[in-house]
Amino acid sequence: MNAMTTDPTSGGSRSMNDAHRVLVLNSGSSSVKYQLLDMRDRSRLATGLVERIGESSSRLVHTPLKGGEPRERTGRIADHEEALKAAAEELAADGLGLDSPELAAIGHRVVHGGLKFSEPTVITDEVLKEIERLVPVAPLHNPANITGIRTAQALRPDLPQVAVFDTAFHTTMPEHAARYAIDVGTADAHRIRRYGFHGTSHAYVSRRTAELLGRPVSDVNVIVLHLGNGASASAVAGGRCVETSMGLTPLEGLVMGTRSGDIDPAVTFHLKRVAGMSTDEIDVLLNKRSGLVGLCGDNDMREIRRRVDEGDERATLAFDIYIHRLKKYIGAYSAVLGRVDAVVFTAGVGENSAPVREAALAGLEGFGLAVDPDRNAVRSGEPRLISPEDARVAVAVVPTDEELEIAGQTFDLVHN
After folding, report:
1. Which of 185, 194, 227, 255 has the fewest CB atoms in 10 Å of its CB?
2. Which member of 41, 125, 158, 166 is catalytic?
């Protein structure tokens, strides 16, 4: 990376060392999430969300985090270009415009990087072409990521744009964990293998867990449970992912808010032959009408727990299925790792649902796993242990911070 770059506000050049801000963009099919961070102290300067892009009910919510109240815009935002321009206007109103010489780079969350991208990468034309070539294995995510990248490039063509891939952390999996047991030629021709997702979260949380334990990352084996509306588990040995629950797509693995997770592949054939469902209909069923919402009509764990407490049978069954799948993965990953130093919960459900944490580890005392009820009941935004003092295996809650992880990887790349 060159030490100098053009400053469009001055017409001259500036040192990259003078630039300390990173804008993180997460472009979805109809939304853009953004955060601006100051990497000197890793603080947030502003956050925002543009949602329902392309609809008449589009909405932008912008929150400056160093003084100032949240601001909201409503009304149709036609496309991602207009969304990013609107976000740039809100940032500029706070004195944080994209033309600032303090902006070092823009970091983009890219969901699928295949096997080619195992680390953050400065985006070039060739990199963008490779991300496009991966669209068939990430048809819902990569096209939106590409749109966000191209729009940001148009806004700041002089600025380094960095792709940070959800799949990158999982590229360390050994072949015996990543391969499916299907014909090798077919698998290779169509890039069929386990890639894994939520990688930035698993990387951040496994590293923060080692810090919480006061041990080097290289010396710690961790099972990370990222439990949000999307959910995934990973087995991390010495900072390297050796197994993860999501596969070719984010559908495989744990029971999720609307996704089925693990299922016999023959279910799809059965639905096609017996129910007459099309491929697209089955796709919608498994990704959007399954998981917790398919089992009980709700995908909000708070509402499900309320219903469980009231004796609702469908909610109770949904919760029990969810917990059963979690236990299976905890047990399996304990076997994969051989030695487990910590089981850590993160993301919306993992960080906030004490009943989920308690139920997931109930009966696993033989694995050295237990939850202290008082510690588990504490609500906090800080990393913390919730296992008893004398526990053989630590149990932790570590709030994830994917945006900070993306910003950190982006900043480190452009300054090295």
Report:
1. 185
2. 166
